Amino acid sequence: MSGELYDILGARYVANRRTDPRIAELLWAQLGDAASVLNVGAGTGSYEPPHRQVTAVEPSDAMRARRPPGSPECVAGVAEALPFPDDAFDVSMTVFSDWFWEDQRAGFAEMRRVARERVVVLSFDRSAAEDFWLSREYLPHAHDLWGSFDTTLEHLGECEVIAVPIPGDCVDGFFHAFWQRPHAYLDGSITEAMAVFRRLEEREAKDGLRRLSEDLQSGAWQARHAYLNGRESIDVGYRLLVSTV
User: Fold this and answer.
1) Can you tell me the distance from the alpha carbon of 40 to that of 123, in angstroms, rounded to the nearest whole number?
2) How many angstroms separate the CA atoms of 155 and 108, rounded?
């Protein structure tokens, strides 16, 4: 599923899904002094740490083909069957990919198998994002595309959970990134890089975005969400999970 989905998303992905430096800083701090890092579900290479020996694994042909020149080595493979021996890397990491694995428990077990020190996962707690205006008011089934965060924690095992605030000017174009810039959700060149809009029922997506457009034109959205003005960041459920092997 994930490989096929990201083959479809690939054309827009490079332009819209980029490393936000503030999120990256939080993530890279959890890598400790690791010299070697495996990036699972690596996509086009966002959030791969500099000055480390990085190896990437990615199932999508389209994503691997769109990695920038000079990117770390990227091999074909899935999280559930990593093509590496035990204890091959200091740290294994994954960013926004565990939601789409066929078997999350197996994927985390593989990440633990190949890591000597720790596993670092940037994931999402949907229960902490139920008040997100886009899903609450316009796309009520959007968060159904994510599984239970409690299940994620059960599958990963004992870990530290760190909240990751999302800045209002986030440069990475994931689903919740434009919480302060609602017009972005009406731009097809942006939403075409979001897995949510590829998996959500088409009628719901079209109707929700039509109502958003009407509310923006009338000023109704601005009136309801004036509390967002001046906010530098908000918590919409993104979490760093750090598990010692």
Assistant:
1) 13
2) 7
Distances (CA, A) of 90 to 37, 50, 95, 120: 6, 15, 17, 11
Q: What would the two tokens of residue 223 be?
A: 């009136």
The answer to whether 124 touches 239, Cβ cutoff 8 Å, is: yes
Assigned token pair, 205: 């997506």
Q: The whole model's pTM is what?
A: 0.91
Q: What are residue 93's DSSP bridge partners?
A: 39, 120
* Mode of pairing for the β-strands spanning 89-95 and 233-234: unpaired
Percent of the chain with pLDDT over 70: 94
What's 138-185 look like in SS3? CCCCHHHHCCCHHHHHHHHCCCEEEECCEECCCCCCCCCCCCCCHHHH
Topology given in CATH for the domain delimited by 2-244:
Rossmann fold (3.40.50)
3-state class percentages of the chain: helix first, strand second, coil last, to nearest 5? 45, 20, 40
pLDDT of amino acid 193: 85
| Tokens matching residue 119 | 């596993």
Query: What pLDDT digit, counting tens, does each position of 21-56 carry?
Result: 999 999 999 999 999 999 999 999 999 999 999 999
Q: Count how many residues are written for the chain.
A: 245
Domain boundaries, the chain: 2-244
d(CA 186, CA 158): 40
What's the Cα-to-Cα distance from 15 to each of 18, 33, 197, rounded to whole Å? Answer: 7, 31, 17
CA distance 231 to 221: 16
